[in-house]
Amino acid sequence: MWQFFHRLSSPPYFYGFAGRLVPWLAVPAALLALAGLYGGLVLAPPDYQQGESYRIIFIHVPSAWMSLFIYMVMATAGAISLIWHIKLWEAVAVSSAPIGAAFTFLALVTGSLWGKPMWGTWWVWDARLTSELILLFLYLGVIALYGAVEDKRTAARAVAILALVGVVNIPIIHYSVEWWNTLHQGPTVTKFDAPSIHVSMLIPLLLMALACKLYYVVVLLVRVRHVLVDREQSSRWVAELVK
Amino acid sequence: MKPIRRQRLILIVLMVAGIGTAVTFALRAFNENLMFFFTPTQVVAGEAPPQNLFRLGGMVVDGSVKRPGNDLTVQFGLTDSDKVVTVQYTGILPDLFREGQGIISKGRLRDDGVFVAEEVLAKHDENYMPPEVADAMASAKAAKAARESVQ
Does the predicted interface ipTM exceed a cut of 0.90? Predict the structure, then answer.
């Protein structure tokens, strides 16, 4: 097991392994997304108060979960790359940022679209919404910092430190609805009690969450492969690859 | 683990812990500013800023929604299940506004204790269920209440 991880850290080995893995994950991701969307948009009953508009949670909630999850992956990969100086994990950290930014953006936009008819406003500066917006800026900061530094080794190190500094925001986002009075409602699924959502709505929601997770892994693998080839341009395995 | 790597690990842990502590203290210092709204109890106790714009959050009291005139003016009681503050609002209410629903209103406190709102937002709760389940739960609750009142 340990040996396998060691071998996986070698860029040429990872390049081949990830390339073979992508189709095996992409197809289940697409199938799960189709099942989740069908279950959520067609099969699930309307909500007792919100009617049909609640269906935006099938996009909004998985995106918001992913925005936090991807940040944790990015920060962990950053920590590993700082401690062990492994190029693969540097690539994982920098490749996660654009995907995380996309999910954060999606969560903010869908929340805003739902907020207008339901709350009566597009946006309020409450603790949950503000901390999620800060998360988007953190992702954008990571992307900009990596792009701005010419030497990619140094850039990856700077990015890892920025990602680790921003980690404090993650518990703040999650607990903001419990620590402070907010307009955003409290957690429905991710709490210790039983989820306060009917099972006919919970199943498509979890399917969508799983689909988003697989989608992230697929896009991550593809991006990491590109970063590795780009960073190792002068090495022998890349030369053999393009031949 | 090699000593140099352990050193780097400790450094990272210390950095994250240090930033975490600093942010915790900062948030505690600004705790009040991070609160999105005041509760009716706080308003009755005089903690809300007089003459100033602030937000008031609570549940709409059952049976308290009145329309005094022919225009869009609404009056209702807002409670945190302890104290009640009367709120007056002229305008269009959000979809989720109804009696027993949590809402947040922004406005000023008038001298007679009525809160004049400029904006009313509905606060959604974390429960999602089909209408039939909600009906079933409501009728079960009513049946239970009826049983208890008979006894």
Answer: no
